[in-house]
Design goal:
- The complex is a heterotrimer of chains A (164), B (395) and C (466).
- With 395 residues, chain B is α/β, with parallel strands linked by helices.
- Chain B has 16 helices and 9 strands.
- Chain B has one domain.
- In chain B, strands 4-3-9-7-8 form a 5-stranded parallel β-sheet, with helices on both faces.
- In chain B, helix 8 packs across helix 9 and helix 9 packs across helix 13.
- Chain B is globular.
- Chain C has 2 domains: 175 residues, no CATH class; 204 residues, no CATH class.
- Chain C contains 20 helices and no strands.
- Classes of the chains: A mainly beta (164), B alpha/beta (395), C mainly alpha (466).
- Chains B and C meet through helix 1, helix 2, helix 3 and helix 4 of B and helix 1, helix 9, helix 17, helix 18 and helix 20 of C.
């Protein structure tokens, strides 16, 4: 292929520095630690405790900041630590999922928490759950799977990230 | 190469450091929190249009810089431009209005484009719900609540129509269509019109809270009275024997419109309002009102039911006041912002709530006709029972 | 991917600049790859279509330039290139429009409608089809040498800075730069300056004033004053949005060593509609002039033919913007005004008035055209024009519009927009002499724009739809 010719590249040093910083960040990310998500809260709260992969976040979390709501997400259960779940695929309602779990609790829903910062499909979470959600949460439940399942929805009390 | 002047190098340097720095610092921050850098997520999923949109949105939402900068920018815009954010319109004399509620009145109805089935006309969903309830022997009473801008347009703009002139026909049209289709409806527009003209007891008080989307205790009481009147007039229920008293309680409340600006420095410009509420108290036991799941009436609705009832002071909202008017406790299912569909889905998950019911009272704010969460799809309830008395009366 | 988004400014752009400047060679291949990533960000499947258009025009270009190719063969190849390119554009852009209109006609004749298959409009197709077409025509005319490598040609077609919304870069403009171009601090920093000004235009002005325009155009029955405010706001929005994009595109091009042509030159200071078309979307008007108006005969075949040519060019120019009768009307309106001015000796009918009055009247004439441009259909446009002249009663909820649009913020932004629009110094020229003062001002603008961008919702450029 023909080469572009021109004067000596003036920005190369500055951009080289940028590359080094980028490489540093990448190395840092590769060296991140493993976490099982286990802590004193997730192992004691709720009646069920699972490690599960967040398979799908269907639709988008509503932008309406006026209301508090739970948003139902689809999980694949990888391990059941306590209690039992009805199937390998479960549907879990998370309270105000736009917020980090540590900041999600409020005067209406005081019990939720965890160290998860953001919900991203594909991630693995360790969760303390209750079921069915309607017995534990009286507000709006946004369930994009409403028409295609009859399984009970779990209510996420504690949600920790799991780093494999 | 041309000699680089200082200002060229300086401008380029600042630009390059900024565009590199933000992404790198964000990634560094995420790594220090033990997270995978969000920017790397782009390599984890198939590059479909939907995944790429979600990736971009996640990236923006997780931005540390955006989080830090947002309150300052919002405050500056508020002070310099009178811009209270995408959700809020500043009215007159310190009144605040919820923008979607105002847009509902300004824009044409039905909208030219709807995003899919169940997103436009609410009528089919309401009629379907009525028919499903009827099959169980249960009647339906629909209570569309006027938005604040419908009742107090003059507090939004001086150009508002003169009192008595209808502001927007959308909801009134839908009320007429519902009545024509044989659905019982409480027309709160007429109630508030009369009240503002001083024709209802209580005088010309404020029926909505200046800094909130919701009604004041007085407005709520008017709605409860009108609903009770309608239920009794139609003979759907008979007045019960339980006696309740009213207990005055003052609460401090920061308006939800103030809170939705999500900027603490702006919030401080709007001090909490003191609101004189009345709790409903059982005359004999002295206990505050409590729902009875076995009641013959189930009330479905949104935050207009929640305010004063589940919020402070508690047991002082529309459900309690409706119960007091009717003389017996009610069952209720409240779903913030989800009275169009979410509340029906919740009912479908808990069909036991329909046991022993004669009437379902369904309240929703008028703007949900257009902006209701999840639109207006039909929601199937598990079929049961033969038509009963209340349903037959409404036919 | 939108230039005024976090993913572009903080991730895509730094990565592209970094690798581009560190690469010892194969820069065009790299630019091609990142341009496909940039384009595929909307929908990865669209890249295949672009690849098809590129391959077809490259092949025809080679055919035209083949040694020993006869004049007839060259002509056949050029025509085939035009037919294939415009056929592709026509199918993706106008199929739905044609099908719906045909069904409307059939319905009126009592004939059962045809099934219409949903065809998605690939973003930016009008721009890159025109660009690649310019190559085969330029080579056919002998105005440019054939490109020496497919990757260079593909890079020219897909070059991400101006891919989605122009300026439409003709092959003969950039042919030499594809062979050799300089990279200097000054060029890079002037690119940065232009990019920042474009970003500021988009984020600080266009998006802010766009809210006013949207509020009014979406209202059921705006009052006359509301309607005038709304269309003026839209005139400002479309200018700052589109010229902001062009500035950013030209700026990005400079950062990569390219020099793209200017696309705007104070269009609202035009003293006639003819003048306006020399200042607005210059790359489109020159494209239409060189590839349509002149081949039709221009003004060399008599007065009537000149008028016909003008009308044809403006009608097609209107249709180029979108498959909607509103754009056809918009083109017809401009065509009529151009013919009128041509009949008056290429000047406006108000030539004798002082310049400020001429500018004001031209702006007023443009406002009517923007109503057609902004309205979703002809009925809406008519309703809006009626509202401007008090023909509709501002009733019901639309009276509440006042609370939304007559605010301190609107007043300040409108004043700011007017101040920038009605002064002669353009971003393109202003950055040419970069002083310390300008550099500091640009950094301040960059900071303000980024801070504002952080709080704004997704807001694509208006011209992306074309």
């Amino acid at each position: 292929m023909m080469q572009v010719t021109g004067p000596v590249n003036p920005c190369r040093r500055l951009l080289g520095l940028g590359l080094l910083l980028l490489a540093g960040a990448c190395c840092g990310s590769c060296a991140s630690r493993t976490e099982s998500g286990e802590d004193a809260e997730v192992t004691t709260r709720g009646s069920t405790e699972v490690t599960a992969r967040l398979v799908e976040i269907r639709g988008e979390f509503p932008e309406n900041v006026n209301y508090d709501y739970a948003f139902v997400m689809k999980y694949e259960v990888l391990q059941t630590h306590r209690g039992k779940v009805d199937s390998d695929v479960i549907y879990v309602g998370h309270y105000n999922p736009r917020k980090p779990r540590a900041a999600a609790a409020d005067e209406r829903v005081e019990q939720v928490g965890g160290n998860l910062v953001q919900f991203r499909a594909g991630d693995v979470h360790r969760m303390a759950l209750e079921s069915p959600i309607d017995n534990y949460f009286m507000g709006g439940i946004i369930d994009k799977y409403f028409e295609e399942k009859s399984d009970p929805i779990y209510w996420a009390i504690w949600t920790n990230r799991v780093v494999k | 190469m041309a000699a680089a002047k200082g200002q060229h190098v300086f401008l380029t340097g600042v630009f390059v450091v900024t565009i590199f720095g933000v992404g790198l610092l964000q990634s560094g921050l995420e790594v220090s929190r033990g997270q995978r850098p969000q920017s790397a997520d782009v390599f984890l999923k198939k590059p479909t249009a939907a995944n790429l949109r979600a990736y971009e949105k996640n990236l923006e939402e997780a931005s540390w810089f955006a989080e830090k900068v947002r309150p300052t920018v919002q405050y500056a815009r508020f002070m310099l431009l009178d811009d209270a954010g995408p959700k809020t319109i500043l009215g007159r004399e310190g009144w605040l209005f919820y923008r979607p509620g105002v847009r509902y009145l300004i824009e044409p109805w039905p909208p030219k484009t709807v995003s899919g089935e169940g997103q436009g006309d609410p009528l089919p969903a309401i009629l379907d719900f009525r028919d499903q309830l009827r099959a169980r022997g249960i009647g339906l009473l629909v209570v569309p609540v006027p938005g604040k801008a419908s009742v107090y347009p003059e507090m939004l703009t001086q150009r508002a129509p003169a009192p008595g002139q209808p502001l927007a026909g959308h909801t009134r049209k839908i009320i007429a269509q519902l009545e024509e289709a044989g659905v019982a409806v409480v027309d709160l527009f007429k109630v508030f019109d009369r009240a503002k003209r001083g024709e209802e007891p209580g005088g010309k008080t404020k029926y909505y809270l200046p800094q909130d989307t919701h009604w004041s205790p007085e407005g709520m009481r008017l709605a409860a009275e009108a609903t009770a009147r309608k239920l009794l007039e139609l003979g759907l229920v008979e007045r019960g024997q339980v006696q309740y008293d009213l207990k005055p309680v003052a609460v401090k409340r920061r308006g939800d419109i103030v809170r939705m600006m999500q900027a603490p420095r702006i919030e401080r410009c709007f001090p909490a309002e003191t609101i004189d509420c009345t709790q409903v108290v059982h005359r004999q036991s002295g206990e505050v009102y409590r729902d009875d799941p076995d009641s013959q009436i189930l009330v479905l609705g949104d935050s207009f039911l929640r305010i004063y009832e589940q919020d402070a002071p508690g047991s002082g909202g529309m459900i309690a006041h409706l119960a007091r008017e009717l003389g017996f406790p009610l069952a209720s299912l409240v779903n913030d912002g989800g009275a169009s569909t979410l509340v029906r889905q919740a009912l479908a998950r808990k069909p036991a709530l329909l046991a022993n019911k004669r009437v379902v009272v369904w309240e929703f704010i008028e703007r949900d006709i257009r902006f209701g969460m999840e639109g207006w799809p039909r929601v199937p309830l598990p079929a049961e029972r033969q038509p009963g008395v209340a349903a037959a009366m409404l036919e | 991917m939108v230039f005024s988004s976090q993913v572009f400014i903080f991730y895509f752009l730094p990565l592209v600049l970094l690798v581009y400047y560190l690469l010892p060679g194969n820069r065009h291949l790299f630019l091609l790859l990142v341009s496909y990533v940039f384009y595929g960000w909307w929908n990865p499947w669209f890249v295949l279509l672009m690849l098809f258009v590129t391959a077809v025009n490259y092949a025809f270009g080679q055919w035209i330039a083949a040694p020993g190719a006869s004049r007839r063969w060259k002509r056949v190849a050029m025509v085939a290139s035009v037919v294939t390119s415009l056929g592709t554009l026509g199918f993706f852009k106008y199929y739905m429009f044609a099908a719906h209109n045909l069904n409307w006609l059939l319905g009126n004749l009592g004939i059962a409608p045809l099934t219409v298959v949903e065809v998605v409009l690939p973003i930016g197709i009008s721009f890159y089809v025109f660009q690649s077409l310019s190559y085969t025509i330029d080579v056919y005319r002998g105005e440019s040498p054939p490109v020496r490598s497919f990757f260079d040609f593909a890079c020219f077609v897909a070059l991400f800075p101006q891919l989605i919304a122009g300026p439409i870069v003709r092959y003969n403009t950039i042919a030499e730069q594809l062979v050799s171009r300089a990279h200097t601090w000054n060029k890079f920093s002037l690119g940065v300056a232009l990019f920042i000004l474009g970003l500021a235009k988009k984020v600080l002005l266009a998006n802010a004033i766009g809210k006013v325009a949207d509020a009014v155009f979406d209202a059921q029955a705006p009052a006359a004053l509301d309607a005038w405010l709304g269309v003026t706001a839209y005139a400002f929005q479309i200018y700052f949005d589109f010229s902001g994009y062009s500035d950013m595109a030209i700026g990005l091009g400079r950062m990569l060593g390219f020099e793209f042509p200017r696309n705007f030159n104070a269009p609202y200071l035009s003293e006639s509609i003819t003048d306006f078309w020399r200042r607005w979307h210059i790359s489109l008007s020159t494209f239409l002039r060189d590839y349509l108006y002149f081949p039709l005969g221009g003004n060399r075949r008599g007065t009537r033919r000149t008028y016909f040519n003008l009308a044809t060019v403006m009608l097609l120019g209107g249709l180029w913007h979108g498959a909607n009768w509103t754009f056809v009307l918009w083109g017809a309106y401009h065509g009529t005004l151009l013919i009128w001015e041509r009949a008056m000796g290429k000047s406006s009918i108000y030539t004798r008035l002082p310049p400020p009055a001429r500018i004001a009247i031209t702006f007023l004439l443009l406002l009517f055209s923007w109503v057609l441009f902004r309205s979703p259909d002809i009925m809406d446009a008519w309703r809006f024009l009626s509202a401007m002249f008090g023909g509709s009663i501002a009733g019901g909820g639309s009276m509440l519009l006042a609370a939304e649009v007559y605010t301190q913020g609107t007043l300040i932004i409108m004043a700011l927009c007017a101040l920038v629009v009605f002064q002669p110094v353009q971003a393109f020229d202003w950055v040419e002499t970069l002083t310390w003062g300008k550099a500091m001002l640009l950094i301040l603008l960059f900071a303000l724009s980024l801070m504002t961008m952080f709080v704004q919702a997704f807001n694509p450029f208006l011209y992306f739809q074309f």
